[in-house]
Amino acid sequence: MATDELMTRALETLGDDGPLSVEAIHRLTDLADVPESMTIAELADLLDISPHTLRYYERAGLVEVARDGNGHRVYDAQAVRRLVFLTRMRLSGMPMRDLQHYISLVDAGQHTTPERLDLLIEHRDTIRRRIRELTLSLTAVEYKIATYGGSTGPDVQALDAIAGADRTALPHEPPRRALPAD
Known about the structure:
59% of the residues lie in helices and 4% in strands. With 182 residues, the protein is mainly alpha-helical. A 3-stranded antiparallel β-sheet has the order 1-3-2. Helix 6 (96-108) runs antiparallel to helix 7.
């Protein structure tokens, strides 16, 4: 399944009930109702990813999967937890090489905690930068919508009220006349 589809599903699961929190993440990763062991089809359905992706993660060394007597993959609770984490990190844009490095550190033991922390802090900073970039892009799109006479989104409308309803100025900028539409 495509990453954007998985992100859509994750956001729908969280709903619009306020700010994201650690509790929200726990809701996404709640495995209380998950069976002790799962087949590849069951896990693919649970995570909303393809069996091909699960096999890829295994080949990439990100997860170890036991086999039953017939050679079929059997995912235990530890593998499921790891795959939930991996899918969340992929949704956040973490490159495969960084995931592989992180997992190798986890598998190496507790003494690698400081290096894992550094890797996650770096990834967090990358996510924050992307959020700022996307916010700037959203502002540009909202500005262009306003120049065409369209209605802006609720977050921009809240800013409009603060800025005195000037739809072309950001809250910290003086009002300006609309640019010609391209």
